[in-house]
Design a protein that fits this description.
- The complex is a heterodimer of chains A (387) and B (583).
- Chain A is an alpha/beta fold and 387 residues long.
- Chain A folds into two domains: 126 residues, Rossmann fold, CATH 3.40.50; 234 residues, Rossmann fold (3-Layer(aba) Sandwich).
- Chain A has a seven-stranded parallel sheet, sandwiched between helices.
- In chain A, α1 links the parallel β1 and β2.
- In chain A, α2 crosses α3, α3 packs parallel to α4 and α7 packs across α12.
- The longest helix of chain A is centred in the middle third of the chain and has 15 residues.
- Chain A starts with 8 loop residues before the first strand and ends with a helix.
- Chain B has 583 residues and is an alpha/beta fold.
- Helices cover 51% and strands 8% of the residues of chain B.
- Chain B is built from 22 helices and eleven strands.
- A five-stranded parallel sheet of chain B has the order 3-4-5-6-7. A four-stranded parallel sheet of chain B has the order 8-9-10-11. Chain B has a two-stranded antiparallel sheet with strand order 1-2.
- In chain B, β9, α13 and β10 form a beta-alpha-beta unit.
- In chain B, α11 runs parallel beside α13.
- Chain B is globular.
- Classes of the chains: A alpha/beta (387), B alpha/beta (583).
- Chains A and B meet through α1 and α3 of A and α5 and α18 of B.
């Protein structure tokens, strides 16, 4: 099913050495209310992280909220990096505190920034500007030549957009799937708030360290808000995944139940077959994170992933509730995260007993993902790498 | 049950205690006599004064009542200025004019920080030129606040912006050059949090180099170092919270034992309020953060009566009605918590308060109206008996404060406290009106309600992990914006009378020139080159102390001699990890 008007995707962030996120939080909420999907990077973000993310996420525009000064240099660094990586088509707008003078704004706009908003600008005006400038379906950019079968980040991003929006034909013209898939794909799922994102980021840290030439792709899902856009905020807390060796894409569920999105399978096909520039072949590892799921959900189809990790917290309710969780019968590994919380011991025991009844006989690992160098996460990493 | 539930229970016990005293004063003749005597002796002890217009007045305003019950309610429920639970004031005399002597200390605290260390140093010398007391309040630039060196990637535009750039102990020497650091009339305040232990270590090490080891015990000043509010609101964090708290406690342990004149933490609601919190949330989160620190330091084995008197607080004062009584309630709940939960003596029960007027309440359009806003906030802060105050400059919404408006802001304080008759003749002059008491009660209930919420989540640290404070603050901020755009919250010049014309303001923005930034980077490179070998060893030694769980602050005093701020944070992050933001 082709969506005639896919939502606008915009990336927002606060510059490096700046923690003022009050304004951007309000603007994010307002944008979401207007049906826009926000990829939010958070505060204190260097220009290179913002530009890398904008390209990977194939957004229409970058919105920057700056309060701590140094904005002239920062915005021009963003524009420079975008142009250098052939992504000058991504718009840049911004605003912020009184440190941005009228003269600064004029200079920044001359340098390629679409618009600077001053403090006190009504939100309606900002929304109107975004709708007018970034609302129209974009002219398709030529993907450019694929050198020796390798894809630039922009090309991978465009293929993923085509995959999500199901624009058949566009992907196949450059994608020649080899029959054999070399990439290992691991799916992470579990209820909301159990620490899936943190856990994946810690796995990324370990993988990048253990395999210094490897490349990782991450497909991360977040829920859309009914009738509105979505806040895709995983990047903000995935500190180790903002790295040149990691390609990350955030997908909004767009009303699809069950933990993933409509184009998830097609995106996985793209990620399993592309060869990122500067690498020896395909991605070495793909990590998929679902939306927080309910008891009956089975988000991954069999051929999608090689391994499934079910992440649980200690507060699932009573022992009886465990019986109803479908993924416990299907996962390869069950992680009990937040094992420092009260009740974690009991939870591990109850889950262990529950798993004895399942055919799969998954491994159980207790972790405290928020702890740096957590031995539980080390153990999980070893299990994941064993196969 | 967390410590907050204990505080709430003790507040309730205190309320019952007061009611009991009221009953006894009305029913038991002996007790009545005692209460009346105490009340009368307060009046006599305070004395009287004749105003320039010839009015003879008592120096302390007491409730006008014959009812011994009401006297008891005042004495036990509020306390006279300087008396438990300190609702009226932390000290007996507060802003009263000292008879016969010129006041010893100027009330101004001027926040400065720009460019390179020597630029700020020059500013400090200019600002304190005519002052007896030299109180230097230091702002740091973005890279320093985030523990980055000036040569870190992507920070060039931020060097020396909004504060001073400090990379090394050499910068620290330049920053306070020419001041006698152990002079009783000198003190320094540093507004920095995540890298606070490293920055204070640089200060101590620099002082040691200049004056010898003996100076350490004489160093006076304050460092903000409030990492909990960073995680809740201001977002300047480097390491995971647990590690940050460990480094902080190491620092507090050292200052408590070696630097008895130092205030090692300024527990701050200001940034919580500026990020959008309601006044009640500001007070509740600040107090609950404070109690969390006390618990932490005690667990380290520190004596509450030793470190307690070195805790200070920093609140925002805006235009909402709650500010009529906010600090009064804070003083009371802090005193009850410290005495009845932690067993602290009188000096450790005081909620020592620095107030800053609200930055968020200022707007750019018709900006001179900000003078009025700030003046009213100043008055609210003084009605609340703040111990010191910073008033914002009217031009802050669009520029680094210009000297003209800095001076107006500082003199507004002098006008209020020295020129008007409101505060200099009589303490308590505006306390205890029926409206104030109603607001006070509502604020107290609100704060205790928040304590209950946080307690249910498992205490302050558990609530932080569940993003409770952050989402509450964000929700309040969003509501505030909606109220402004919906017109429910009138802002003159923004959503009312907004059409008034205004000449475009002539803005002079102070920026650090490119070549100065380059100078900072060049100096840093030189420092790193000079110490290449030594820094490796020093960082290894530091790493060993961290791994072994020793006192990191004590070690840092040596590390900073040969390592830059960025080198140290990088090494520490390798060991303890980086902070993972929650959005």
């Amino acid at each position: 099913m082709k969506n005639p008007h896919p939502p606008i995707r915009i990336l927002t962030a606060v510059p490096i050495c700046d923690g003022h996120d009050s304004a951007i939080n309000t603007i994010n909420l307002e944008l979401i209310r207007h049906g826009i999907e926000i990829i939010y990077l958070g505060y204190h973000r260097p220009a290179r992280d913002i530009v890398r993310a904008a390209i990977q996420e194939d957004v229409r525009a970058i919105g920057i909220s700056s309060y701590n000064g140094g904005h002239v240099e920062f915005f021009s660094e963003i524009i420079d990096l975008l142009r250098k990586s052939g992504s000058g088509h991504i718009g840049v707008f911004g605003g912020g505190g009184g440190t941005i003078t009228k003269a600064d704004a004029a200079a920044m706009q001359k340098g390629g920034v679409d618009r600077i908003f001053f403090a006190g600008t009504p939100l309606d005006l900002i929304m109107k500007f975004i709708a007018e400038h970034y609302g129209k379906p974009q002219k398709r950019l030529a993907l450019g030549p694929i050198r020796d079968g390798f894809h630039s980040e922009r090309q991978i991003a465009a293929l993923l957009t085509a995959a999500v929006e199901d624009m058949r034909g566009r992907g196949s013209e450059i994608l020649h799937p080899s029959s054999k898939v070399h990439t290992r794909t691991i799916g992470f799922t579990g209820p909301g708030g159990v620490g899936k994102t943190t856990l994946i980021d810690e796995i990324v840290l370990r993988y990048l360290d253990a395999f210094p030439k490897s490349r990782i792709a991450i497909l991360s899902h977040d829920p859309s808000i009914v009738g509105r856009g979505a806040l895709l905020g995983d990047r903000a807390s995935m500190i180790y995944s903002q790295d040149n060796r990691v390609f990350m894409r955030s997908l909004a569920s767009r009303g699809q139940p069950g933990g993933v999105a409509q184009g998830t399978d097609r995106c996985l096909q793209v990620l399993k077959h592309v060869k990122p520039h500067g690498h020896s072949g395909e991605f070495d590892l793909i990590l998929v994170e679902t939306v927080g799921i309910g008891q009956e959900a089975v988000p991954f189809q069999k051929e999608w992933v090689d391994q499934t990790v079910m992440v649980m917290g200690p507060d699932y309710g009573s022992r009886l509730q465990l019986q109803k969780i479908a993924m416990l019968d299907l996962a390869d590994i069950v992680v009990v995260n937040k094992s420092d919380l009260a009740g974690a011991k009991t939870a591990s025991l109850e889950i262990e007993q529950r798993l004895e009844a399942s055919d799969q006989k998954p491994e159980i690992v207790s972790t405290i993902a928020k702890h740096h160098r957590d031995p539980g996460v080390d153990r999980l990493f070893r299990f994941l790498m064993k196969k | 049950m967390s410590i907050l539930a204990d505080v709430a229970n003790q507040a309730e016990a205190h309320r019952r205690f007061v009611e009991e005293q009221v009953r006894r004063a009305r029913q038991e003749p002996d007790f009545r006599k005692e209460v009346q005597k105490t009340f009368e002796s307060l009046r006599t002890a305070a004395g009287s004064i004749t105003t320039p217009t010839g009015l003879k007045l008592p120096r302390l305003a007491l409730p006008q009542t014959d009812d011994p019950g009401e006297m008891a309610r005042y004495l036990f429920g509020e306390g006279p200025p300087g008396g438990f639970p300190f609702v009226n004031a932390a000290y007996p005399e507060m802003y009263l004019e000292k008879s016969g002597s010129k006041h010893a200390e100027e009330p101004t605290r001027l926040f400065a920080g720009l460019g390179l260390a020597e630029d700020t140093n020059r500013r400090f010398h200019v600002l304190t030129r005519y002052q007896n007391t030299k109180r230097l309040s230091t702002a740091f630039d973005g890279p320093t606040l985030y523990g980055l060196d000036s040569d870190a990637g992507g920070v060039l535009g931020k060097i020396g912006e909004g504060g001073v750039a400090i990379d090394t102990i050499e910068d620290m020497e330049r920053l306070y050059a020419g001041f006698a650091l152990d002079d009783p009339l000198f003190s320094v305040s540093m507004t920095i949090n995540a890298p606070a232990p490293i920055i204070l270590a640089m200060y101590v090490a620099a002082a040691k180099q200049r004056f010898g080891k003996g100076i350490i015990g004489g160093l006076r000043g304050t460092i903000q170092a409030d990492i909990l509010k960073e995680v809740q609101a201001q977002n300047e964090i480097i390491f995971p919270l647990e590690a940050s708290l460990k480094f902080l406690t190491d620092m507090v342990e050292y200052t408590t034992r070696q630097m008895p004149r130092w205030y090692p933490i300024s527990i701050s609601g200001y940034h919580i309020a500026e990020a959008g919190a309601t006044p009640v949330q500001q007070a509740a989160y600040t107090l609950s953060n404070g109690f969390t620190y006390v618990e932490l330091f005690r667990r380290r084995g520190l004596d509450v009566n030793q470190f307690g008197p070195r805790l200070s607080f920093f609140l925002d004062c805006g235009l909402d009605l709650e500010y009529l009584a906010l600090a009064r309630v804070c003083r009371k709940l802090w005193a009850i918590g410290m005495r009845d939960v932690f067993g602290a003596g009188p000096r450790a029960q005081l909620f020592r308060l620095h107030t800053q007027t609200s930055g968020r309440s200022l707007i750019a359009h018709l900006f001179k109206n900000n003078l009025t806003r700030t003046s009213i906030e100043l008055m609210l802060a003084c009605i609340n008996a703040t111990n010191s105050c910073h008033s914002n400059s009217a031009d802050e919404p669009f520029t680094t404060p210009s000297e003209e408006y800095v001076q107006l802001a500082a003199q507004a304080q002098a006008i209020l406290l020295e020129e008007t008759g409101l505060f200099r003749f009589m303490t308590n002059v505006l306390s205890g009106s029926p409206g104030m008491k109603i607001v006070e009660k509502a604020v107290e209930e609100g704060i205790l309600g928040e304590f209950g919420q946080i307690d249910q989540l498992g205490g302050v640290l558990a609530a932080i992990e569940q993003r409770y404070q952050r989402s509450q603050i964000q929700a309040a901020a969003h509501l505030y914006e909606q109220q402004i755009y919906g017109g429910v919250r009138p802002i003159i010049g923004l959503n009312r009378y907004a059409d008034a014309e205004e000449k475009p303001h002539d803005v002079h923005v102070v920026r650090t020139p490119r070549r100065r930034k380059q100078l900072q980077i060049d100096r840093l490179e030189k420092f790193k080159k000079k110490n290449r070998e030594k820094s490796k060893r020093a960082l290894d030694e530091l790493a060993r102390v961290v791994e072994e769980g020793g006192n990191v602050f004590e070690q840092l005093i040596q590390t900073v001699e040969v390592c830059s701020l960025g080198q140290i944070t990088e090494r520490l992050a390798e060991i303890v990890g980086k902070y993972r933001p929650t959005v």
